[in-house]
Specification:
Number of helices: 9
CATH superfamily: Ribonuclease Z/Hydroxyacylglutathione hydrolase-like
Strand content: 15-25%
Helix content: 25-40%
CATH topology: Metallo-beta-lactamase, Chain A
Number of strands: 11
Order of helices and strands: HEHHEEEEEEEEHEHHEHHH
Shape: globular
Distance between the termini: 30 Å
Structural class: alpha/beta
Number of domains: 1
Strand order of the largest sheet: 4-5-6-7-10-11
CATH class: Alpha Beta
């Protein structure tokens, strides 16, 4: 999924004696596709990716409603169109062999955050996040970057009195201090702690309006303000 570099992927394949069945892409940014050509040339694995984005290689172009199946690992993934970070960004949703639902969402949804709007509009991104927030609460959120602590620091500025958010900060800070990942997250935790999924919550809307110094009439206005706030947060 989104191999920004070939070497780390190839190292795991070699160490574990695995065969690469497929390469899945969510969007065209270099840190997600930089290893595609080398991996494909070495393994012959087919590449799946968004229908409308320019990619270094893509054998199967996908859009919402498509499904991809990988029988060797018992995995079927449904494609969701989630524009915003890029114009043609997609996500993959399915169920692991353990029965746990999972979404591979690239740079659309992060732990306690979301991707910057490089090509899409606030309305597009809010709609895309709406698709993800509607997934089952126990869905594992496999995003592409470990930005969790930076996102949580900002989220605590938005909702300083959110007890679940405070607990998440403490737990994830311990994980990172032990050099452990905070990912994957899950939809339930994001609904409780991610400001970008909480634009209709009174506390979040009030914080955004205070930051903007203006009345924000609609959820999309709250979202746009939050995105600007996060962009400028140090």
């Amino acid at each position: 999924m989104d191999p920004g570099q070939a070497a780390p992927v190839q190292a795991v394949l070699d160490q574990r004696g695995l065969i690469l069945d497929a390469i899945l892409l969510t969007h065209h940014h270099a840190d997600h596709v930089g290893g595609v050509l080398a991996l494909q040339q070495r393994t012959g694995a087919p590449v799946y990716g968004p229908a409308s984005e320019k990619l270094p290689a893509c054998d199967h172009r996908l859009m919402e409603g498509d499904t991809v199946q990988f029988p060797t690992v018992g995995l079927q993934l449904s494609v969701l169109d989630v524009p915003g970070h890029t114009a043609g960004h997609i996500a993959y949703y399915g169920t692991l062999s353990t029965g746990k639902p999972v979404v591979f969402c690239g740079d659309t949804l992060f732990a306690a955050g979301c991707g910057r709007l490089f090509e899409g509009t606030p309305a597009q991104m809010l709609d895309s996040l709406g698709k993800l927030r509607a997934l089952p609460a126990d869905t594992l959120v496999c995003c592409a970057h470990e930005y969790t602590l930076a996102n949580l620091r900002w989220a605590l500025q938005v909702e300083p009195d959110n007890l679940v958010l405070q607990q998440r900060w403490e737990a994830d800070s311990r994980l990172r201090s032990d050099s452990m990942p905070t990912l994957p997250s899950n939809i339930a935790l994001e609904l409780d702690t991610n400001p970008f999924l909480r634009v209709s919550q009174t506390s979040v809307a009030k914080a955004a309006a205070s930051y903007a110094g203006a009345v924000l009439e609609a959820p999309v206005d709250v979202f746009a303000c939050l995105r600007e706030w996060k962009n400028n947060f140090k």
